[in-house]
Amino acid sequence: MPYRFKEAMLQAGYSVAQVADALQVSEITVRSWNNHHKKPPIDTLCRLADLYNVTTDYLLGRPGPSQALSLQARPVPAESLRLLHGCPVWEERNGWGLVDAIRQQILFVDGRAVPFPDTAQVSALPPALAMGYYPLEKPIPHSGLGRHGQVWVSPVGVPPDIQRELQGWYHVHDRYVENELRQRFYFDNYGSKWLAFEGEL
Fold first, then answer.
1. Which of 19, 27, 74, 193 is the 20 to 30 A CA-CA neighbour of 10?
2. What distance in Å separates the CA atoms of residue 164 and residue 189, rounded to the nearest whole number?
């Protein structure tokens, strides 16, 4: 069974350093859990589940519903809406709708399409319950990309399965970011095809 230590950590918005600090272990230990080289002891597994707000069954990759303990929707920064193509969101004035990142609008149950700038506070289910991982913080501004050595990249306006395949940690170069599989996103299409977020492995 595939363990979900790294997935749960990213969904909860933690870095390796933050988890290591919270559990008083080394970053190497946390990475070894995330990379499936070691398994945490039972008491640490329980602490990880509490920290990530998931069940121990979810962390262990057991079959069945892998639900987070909290079902409360969380606010999504307006700049990150483009990452949620095809995902349900809750908007304060209009209720439930689906994100259309290609047209940059939310399609509501009553058939209305509201452009992103015209929406009020938008919330989405926590990433653990959504179709894929999406950051809950604001993306890095285009002008700030060059100040990072590594960024978390998420493609914009693609189906969730492709988003899951392409998102992840990318190294920053002069004109593009590139992952270990040599997949690239160029600075020229930042914001229209991809967004980047801060973080550490």
1. 193
2. 19
Per-residue pLDDT tens digits for 160-197 = 778 778 888 899 999 999 998 889 999 999 988 899 98
Residue of 185, 198, 180 whose CA lies nearest to 157:
185
In angstroms, rounded to a whole number, what is the distance separating the alpha carbons of residues 85 and 113? Answer: 14
Question: CA-CA distance, 87 to 159, in Å (whole number)?
Answer: 9
Please state whether the predicted TM-score (pTM) of the whole model is above 0.85.
no
How far is it, in rounded angstroms, from Cα 186 to Cα 90? 32
Q: Is the dihedral of CA 39, 127, 149, 187 positive or negative?
A: positive
pLDDT, one tens digit per residue, over 73-127 is 678 888 888 888 888 888 878 888 888 988 999 998 788 999 999 988 888 765 5
Q: Which SS3 state, helix, strand or coil, does residue 123 take?
A: strand
Q: What are the CB-based long-range contacts (under 8 Å, 24+) for 114-121? A: 116/78, 116/81, 116/82, 117/78, 119/78, 119/81, 119/91, 119/94, 120/91, 120/92, 120/93, 121/75, 121/91, 121/92
